[in-house]
Amino acid sequence: MERWSGMDTLSQGLARRPEPGAAVRTAVRRFWPLTAGDRVWMLVVCCLSLLTALGETAAILLFGELTDGALREGDLDGFWTPAVQWLAVAVVTALLGYLGNSLAALLAERFVLRLRAAVFRHLQTLPPHYFQRHRHGDLVERLTGDVEAVEQMAVSGVLQGVSALLGALLYAAAALWLRWDLALATFLTAPLFLYAAKVLSGRMSAVSRQERRADGALTSVVAEALDNMPFTQAYNRERAEAQRLEGAARAWLRAAVRGARLDEGYRQSIEVVETLCVLGIIGLGAWEISAGRMSLGQLLAFAAFVGYLYPPIRSLGGLALTATAASAGAERLFDILDARPAVRDPEVPAARADPAGPPGAVDADGTDSPPGVVGADGTARTVVAAGPGAGKALGTGEPKSPGGRGPAAAPRLPARSGGGRLELRGVRFGYPGAGRSVLRDVSFTAAPGEVVVVTGPSGAGKSTLLALLTRFYDPDAGSILLDGTDLRDLPLDRLREHVTLLPQRAHVLSGSIRENIACGRPGATDAEIERAARAAGAHAFVRALDDGYFTPLAPRSTGLSGGQLQRIAIARALLRDSPVLVLDEPTTGLDASAVHHLLPALRRLSAGRTTVVVSHDMSVAALADRVLVLEAGHLAASGTHAQLLARGGLYASLQPGTAAG
Ligand SMILES: Nc1ncnc2c1ncn2[C@@H]1O[C@H](COP(=O)(O)OP(=O)(O)OP(=O)(O)O)[C@@H](O)[C@H]1O
């Protein structure tokens, strides 16, 4: 199995420190494909920038004409023509500026939309341990703050850079045309701006990394504090939590102030350089005017050109800093994009791909994904989207065929009725990066219609076994077969249609009860939903609610009990109607009466299917055709509940009221 070289967030922050320029180049190279489809519009923005700069150049020349023709002479006749022309130029320039800036804002937001969708799509392919090893608040920050920071470099940065460059060239050309000798004297100062930016960019890079990390840590602390609020209140931990928040906020403040100081340092030193230049020009101009080689209008126009020339040069230097800061955000996105999914769809020749599979990955804005996106080696990757693992466009390499097998054609599973035979052959597995096997030589078979309960001491590997059955991971050795086909040879979406997981805590989606049940099989009719709810023992309490099936639920504010939510989850699983069911501690946290209501529903749910249940609950074990006892990763015993009890040993010791339970 391919190992994921995961490290925790902090150590990744400390790892590899490319120099700022290289980091920016890598980021631009990897994210640039996301601008596909908008590049023509980016060109339009650049053209509009050029036209705007031309308009401003014309305005300055008209200003010089106005000064010499009307102001110096005190002649109103010389005022009207240049004044009307100037006004016309100003209106057209304003219009072009409006169009250009609006279009640039649209392109920037579209890039954000695509980048976030691309990172999120890849995130959805990552295995459970990735989410265990990264704080959720930090991941939220990456999908929001870091994505926006990268945009500042990849789209806004490029557009502003091109526009600044065009403006600078144009104003420089105009200044040269007006007085080449004065212009050259002025240009000598330009490298000072870029030098200041270069000196600061090294420090900016380190500060930006700290700032991005501090942002992530702060969001994490807030998210965790909100999640833990009842615990915080019940244990009088308000002060401790407030201190934790303050600690994270202070770290963020320090990083933010350092960043602001660098920005401000750049801005203010540039102001001083600019003032020096302007004074120099006025001094030279005064000398030229006194020698009769220059008019006042020419001097003012020249000074205006130089006044226009500095902002683009300053902005080019500032952009170097913005890009350096953004590359710290980009590194945090690469951390996600370079993490490898633990499992991959089998390679299916395009012509043989199942037409019933989900459509190709589509951007959040409804447009097709650009074909190649941000592969670590910069190569384009094709979005195949043969299943829920369709984040392949962002992965870092093609999947290895597990166990050294070649590319596999995707076998079709049999229809719902009759199938569902599960077979484990000598399965060994250890979590990526953990370095030890959690399951060792596990072999058993579960036939259609059979209920197999897996039990054992805490940490024996029961939940891990379920993660393999639902193919969140592949075994390191051995194989798992569904109706004779290795799970690794089945498209993930097909596999997960055939194997339904009922997790320990019922998942609640934001939406009505009806929607929560219907997500088991999108498109289910009201009658089918009600039938599933009845079989799950949920119909009676749902109907008693004011809004019945339209009662809104939200992940943390359901207003339903744990047992009721579990029955909604059972209705969802019933509707899914898959041949294999995998249940993780379905009665955990429920009292005797809730379990009493749940068991008949579980019995109906498992009828005619292959059911594997992880449970410590004896009432669930009593439902089983066979009980498997896992101990330290291997199967220690198997038999019916009664047989195992009679045999004594580990199983008997697990029962409540016994010493080793
Ligand atoms: N993401 C992970 N990375 C590394 N090790 C893990 C990970 N998840 C679980 N483990 C380890 O794998 C072993 C088996 O864990 P598992 O959750 O499968 O046990 P379990 O039998 O389900 O326990 P319980 O009954 O307490 O839920 C444990 O030693 C655990 O520490």
Automatic annotation (TrEMBL):
Disordered: region residues: 347-419
Instruction: Select a single GO molecular function from the record's annotations and give it.
Output: ATP binding
Q: Which family does the UniProt entry place this protein in? A: Belongs to the ABC transporter superfamily. Siderophore-Fe(3+) uptake transporter (SIUT) (TC 3.A.1.21) family.
Query: What are the residue boundaries of the ABC transporter domain, all occurrences included?
Result: 422-657
- Gene source species: Actinacidiphila reveromycinica
Print the keywords alphabetically. ATP-binding, Cell inner membrane, Cell membrane, Membrane, Nucleotide-binding, Transmembrane, Transmembrane helix, Transport
Q: By what name is this protein known?
A: Putative ABC transporter ATP-binding protein
Domain ABC transmembrane type-1 spans what residues?
43-325
Q: Report the PANTHER family cross-referenced here.
A: ATP-BINDING CASSETTE SUB-FAMILY B MEMBER 10, MITOCHONDRIAL, ATP-DEPENDENT PERMEASE MDL1, MITOCHONDRIAL
Residues that span the membrane, as ranges: 40-63, 83-108, 158-176
Q: 4Fe-4S: is it a keyword of this entry?
A: no
**Positions with biased composition (Low complexity):** 348-364, 407-416
Please name the InterPro entries in this protein's record. Answer: AAA+_ATPase, ABC1_TM_dom, ABC1_TM_sf, ABC_transporter-like_ATP-bd, ABC_transporter-like_CS, P-loop_NTPase, Type_1_exporter
The organism's superkingdom is given as Bacteria
Cellular component GO terms, alphabetical: plasma membrane
Q: Which Pfam families match?
A: ABC_membrane, ABC_tran
- Cell compartment(s), UniProt: Cell inner membrane
**Nucleotide-binding as a keyword?**
yes
Membrane topology value: Multi-pass membrane protein
